[in-house]
Amino acid sequence: MAGHKIAHATLKGPNVVKELVIGLALGLAAGGLWKMHHWDEQRKTRAFYDLLEKGEIGVVVAEE
User: Which regions form coiled coils (predicted)?
Assistant: First the structure.
């Protein structure tokens, strides 16, 4: 029985190029989502100030 060999998975070191590509892809995806969120917030703010400037809305509660 001492002569039987058991198949083991051989452990390899990290694949640097693969890790760089994965990191770059994840970074670009997260950056793209952040920029889309930022552009949406800018659009909302710009629309608010446009309505405020036109006088369609006000920030002071009207007294009755």
Answer: none
Compute the chain's Rg from CA coordinates.
29
Calculate ∠ Cα 64-55-44, nearest 5°: 115
Tokens representing residue 64 in the block: 């009755």
| Helix locations, the chain, DSSP H | 16-54
Residue 19 to residues 14, 50, 62: CA-CA distances in angstroms? Answer: 8, 46, 59
Q: Over 90: is that where the pLDDT of 9 sits? A: no
And the tokens for 61? 């509660």
